[in-house]
Amino acid sequence: MPSTDRQVRRLMDEFKRFPKVGRAALRAGMDRKTARKYLEVGKLPSELKEPRVWRTREDPFEAEWPYIAEMLSDEPDLEAVALFDHLVDRSPGRYEEGQLRTLQRRLKRWRAEEGPPKELFFPQVHRPGEAMQTDFTWATELEVTIAGERFAHMLCHPVLPSSNWEWVTVCHSESMTALRRGVQEALFELGRVPKFHQTDNSTAATHDLRTGKRGFNREYLDLVEHFGMKARTTGVGEKEQNGDVEAANGAFKRRVRQRLKLRRSSDFASVREYEAWLQDVARKANRPRQKKLQEELSVMIPLGVRRLPEFSEVDVRVTQGSTIRVKASVYSVPSRLKGETVRVRVYEDRLEVYYAQKRELTVERLRGKGAHRVNYRHVIRALVRKPGAFARYRYREDLFPTFTFRRAYDILTERSPERRADLEYLRVLQLAAETMECEVETAISLLLEQGEVPTAAAIKDLVRPEAPAIPEVVVNAVDLGIYDSLLDRQLWEAAS
User: Fold this and answer.
1) Which of 61, 141, 335, 425 has a 20 to 30 Å separation from 413 between CA atoms?
2) Domain ranges, ordered by start, for the chain
3) For residue range 175-188, what is the model confidence (pLDDT) as tens digits?
4) Can you name the CATH fold of 131-302?
5) Rounded CA gap, 457 and 99, in Å?
6) Would you tell me how many other CB atoms lie within 10 Å of the CB of residue 217?
């Protein structure tokens, strides 16, 4: 068995302490003759190896290498897999699948010796307090749940590159609303403002991507100008220019994973509680950065402006179907607002609908284009009057609030004609709107378990509230003579 560098180092150390070859060889675990050889040359086994200059097998690409080199000169970015497939097609039967790895090594060596110059990245010196970098990162991979439900979300992550101070807010998309909230939360936590605010070039929150020129949009410029900053961005496709925050994204999520393990639970009662916990993680991460942070704060300007509202407002008209369209998604509103113009406050996570300065509705904000949410309570009375509209109603699937209601409708359609089943189901839905949905759902489940058809009448019998017992109240007659005797006594006391 060949000797290792570790054994020879041990041999040399032992020989220095006790200059006897046999003793040193025994302690190093090697043969006496081998020990003497290494002591004489004074080198490690790795230093005695000579580089191999011969090939153990013939290079299968040697004959065609001039052709390959010519192709690489014309197209240096050619990958080994594509090139290998081309050579196989060009010379059928000449190459084997296992020779791909040999070609990959040849290409790697060619690029290092004769290939074009490679792009270099130069570390930058960050000036304290000069800029804040902000980026969005997906955090669904953290497997956090809210009240037991999987929580798909992103983090808005501002960072000061010089000190690596960071802050975080929870969001659902790379929207202007999310950016506004994330940036101003960070600035108010700091209490001071840097000169620049920097983002990458790919988000519609800061850039007008429709024109193709990627200039800053007006809403984003208003945001940075409000806080006294200047907008700065990376080059197109040059996300490494935002490298500090990109690296901080991964580091922060690793820190969060560790904290979740220590917490022994990834479930939170609410999004607010989860965000507060994340910000506590950020505060603890910022503790060792205080010295450099103070250097940054000393050259930043004080924060002397008010908070911006965390919403945008749009005026929309309620359609004939009692719906509104906001950010490419459809929502239902109470039918009494049909034909009216309402003002909608668009938050990151919700919409608030106002009419005549009175809030009429709050609804969770939908994500993506073409999404819709119709609350059956808003349209059920009109549908009961026009049951024929239910069969082809565009948003019909929204009128099955739970799977139990869907089962009820399927049973009704099996037992009666479709038109009659539609009307019966709408009456069941109306009953849920007028009483409590959970009680109607329980009644449906009970009827289905008993093998009965869940008609509106049968469900009504189960959920009908019991008439409250009216207590019998006995009213005693009042003797008015009591007041006369009281008056006589007061007069007698006054005379005496």
Assistant:
1) 335
2) 5-48, 65-113, 131-302, 312-373, 379-463
3) 889 999 999 999 99
4) Nucleotidyltransferase; domain 5 (3.30.420)
5) 77
6) 17
